[in-house]
Amino acid sequence: MKIKEAEIKIILDSRGQETLEAEMESGKGKRVKSSVPSGKSRSAYEAFVLNPREAKKIFEEEVREKITKIDFLYQDEFDNFLIKLDGTENKKRLGGNLILALSLAFARLKAEEEELELFEYINKIYQGTMHRVNPTLPRMIFNMINGGSHADNDLEIQEFQVIPQHETIAEGIMAAKKFYRELEEELKNRFEAGEIKLGDEAGFSAPIRGNEQAIKILKETAREFAFREKISFDLSLDAAASSFYEKDKAKYKLNKEELSAKDLEEYYEYLIHKYGIIALEDPFFEDAFGEFAIINKRKGIYIVADDLTSTNPHRVKMAVDAGAADAIIIKPNQAGSLTETIEAAKIAHEAGWQLIVSHRSGETEDDFIADLAVGLSAWGIKSGAPETKYRLNKYFRLSEIEKILNKSL
Ligand code: PEP
Ligand code: MG
After folding, report:
1. Which residues of the chain are in CATH 3.30.390.10 domains?
2. pTM to 2 decimals?
3. Is 201 labeled as catalytic in the residue annotation?
4. 359 pLDDT exceeds 80?
């Protein structure tokens, strides 16, 4: 495919911070856009994020002319060209954000040229060398209460999530929205209106006394909801434990106490057992392969690697070899290209792990991750609370894909 025109623009993300949007036109006159999000609880192993203005400059000076001269046949050819042009270990020169914006725009354009839905295009690449993995709809993981670095409150655990057990995606979104409003009412009963705010992922932030209390509030709301509406919600957590790990002391600072990894594991065991939590993300800090492997021996819960693996094929291999988890967060901007994102997903899938495709806490209106989740046949998708356009448009795109899939049955 020949790229006739490519442009990089600076746009604002959900936190009001500058990020990149790529616009691309093919020789046949199709035009697409893609933009990239940014994380706050980032690991040390993610692709480098270049200042957006510097990225735009380097694109205009060095990249644009080159990519409009070559006829790229495949996604990996395009992505590998940019990775090579960058020439560094972590995409420091061009920026993982610039390479990803172009990579995602290329995917959208190529899908259009091939008259495929984006999820079909991704699925075609994913199937490549593997056995058949048909596109399927993921479970939606809604982040209802925000803590950690995503909110200004006393909760160390970053995400308190609910997962509806629904028939259709539309029904699941509707149930999550209702749940969200009921949770708001519950918080209003407990706190002053001015104390209830929204965190980075549009989940609620309030002066809740401790992590267990937040889980208890969700559990009670879910119990009443299931009784009245006949829709059940599972509970899950993203501890994002790197953000409360004190490296110099090798301790975790949680609930105003200093905990060893063993103490923390016992605390998780207690919460899992008492509240029936079904998935626990990043229970330990980002290099704790051994501690992950110990808790991963526990049956009946998904141990989810995010910062630990950072959508980095090399890190995913290390985690698989260590038996560190049985599910993985897939975030394209941790990897910095679609090709590497798919590669990381493939390694985890072949090890029998579940995939959870995820947004970042600083999001744009791009709904690419919905197609990615379906194309990779992911078990789940995380796109924050059922509130604000940045979070909802990914869930709405899933609903559209559901209709497309139903038509083709
Ligand atoms: C996460 O940790 O899963 C997350 C979405 O947060 P961030 O984007 O801030 O890294
Ligand atoms: Mg996480």
Report:
1. 3-116
2. 0.97
3. yes
4. yes
Fold classification of 139-408 (topology level): TIM Barrel (3.20.20)
Radius of gyration of the chain from its Cα atoms, rounded to whole angstroms: 21
Return the SS3 of 255.
Answer: coil
Does the beta carbon of 340 sit less than 6 angstroms from any atom of ligand 1?
no
Q: Residues 240-258: what's their mean pLDDT?
A: 96
User: Which superfamily is assigned to 3-116 in CATH?
Assistant: Enolase-like, N-terminal domain (3.30.390.10)
How confident is residue 132, by pLDDT bands cut at 50, 70 and 90? confident
Residue from 33, 91, 110, 331 carrying the catalytic annotation: 331
Give the mean pLDDT of 102-127: 97
Q: Does residue 331 have an active-site annotation? A: yes
Helix (H, G, I), strand (E, B) or coil at 198: strand
| The pLDDT of residue 131 is above 70 | no
- Give the position, in ligand 1's atom list, of the atom nearest the Cα of 306: 3
* Catalytic-role residue among 112, 159, 201, 363: 201
Q: What's the full length of the chain, in residues? A: 409
Of the candidates 301, 253, 256, 257, the one whose C-alpha atom is nearest the C-alpha of residue 277 is 301
**Cβ of 99 below 6 Å from ligand 1:** no
| Binding site membership of 238 for ligand 1 (Cβ less than 6 Å) | yes
CA 378 – CA 296 distance, rounded (Å): 20
**Contact of 81 with 123, CB cutoff 8 Å:** no
